[in-house]
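User: Could you walk me through two proteins back to back? I'd like the raw sequence and the structure tokens for each, with a short line separating them so I can tell where one ends and the next begins.

Assistant: Of course. Protein one, sequence then structure:
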Amino acid sequence: MPRRIVILVACIFATALAVSAQCPTNEIWYTTTDGAKVSTEKLGEPVIAHTYQDGKGIIRFDKPVTNIGNDAYYGCRNLQSITLPNSVVSIGDRAFSYCLSLTTINIPNSVTEIGNWAIEGCKDLTSTTIPNSVTNLHAETFKNCENLTSITCLATIPPLFWDVNIADDLIIYVPKKSVKRYKHAYGWSLYKKHIKPIK
């Protein structure tokens, strides 16, 4: 049976990859498969504290985090989950590319832009949520995410969508009132035959 990628677009709160708590704006929370701390060399902002205890890593900065820079966690093989603060407005190119163990990424409803190949090659990622604040999904955001089966996008107005490297047999569910809009939107229109209203 062919593998499906399902994109759900809704104007309701996210149910996939929900987190029970929101981290402070000057912190990033994460977990790893081996309990080891991740590298902070490419984060682009001075780190004032970095701990990993009780099953959770905390990276603390001296000011609110607004950008996850290019290659910030590129190739971080032990990164399993990450929670970004509600101050981040952009996720850079390849920020989480080839985080092979990543199963959960919490993108807050402050992010407006997700960069090129930002989540490429995350083979353990099976679902994720794009908040309604996102207006631009750059090239091949989810390229080679071979086990990705569900994306929930909360925008009722289609964000710019440049991804041309996702499964041909995907199903896209959108709010009933947005079906026509998505079918005619740039990028999304390539998959118009797969766009259906949410039941």
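----
Protein two, same layout:
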Amino acid sequence: MHNGANVLRQNIFGCTGSPVISVLEVFILIANPLPVGYHFLTMKVAIGSDHAGFQLKQKVLAWLREKACEVQDVGTHSEVRCDYPDFAKIVAEKVSRGEVERGILVCGSGIGMSIAANKVVGVRAAECVDAHTAEMSRAHNDANVLCLGGRLIGEDVARKMVEIWLSTPFEGGRHAVRIEKIREIELQYLKGTPV
């Protein structure tokens, strides 16, 4: 766990201490299992936006930090006009390289960010508009980047979407077969042999 023992202690036991969880703490956790989706509290997440998504990004960022997520804010850091592909590329590359587990991108509609992020190998960016699409993007599509529209959704809806998206596991099974087919398409184009 990357600093996980103290994050776990702070969120479950209300204190911090040794970098190693004690035997007593393990027994307490076995007797009182963590809720489904607890993992997102210790997840590494990169977040970025353009000027149109800046305000919503700041709200989501504050909420994630409040929940003790390890968050990397790659910008933008103001509402000065800028280009969304620049920030989509940074977040998507961090996800692709495994530097973070998930990415969140915010622009005016979420569409431009998703198009740009999906150009990076291994990224499955999903532009979501509500809690259901956020959940399905994880459960069925194993999306590793969530794209939000700062001009389309409010803070409360965005917060709920992010919470659901970070805590929903990929179902695998028949969906894993489909994800593998997406990887095969990606590999064909990387090799320069499109179908």
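The longest strand covers residues 44-49.

Let me know if you want the two compared in more detail.
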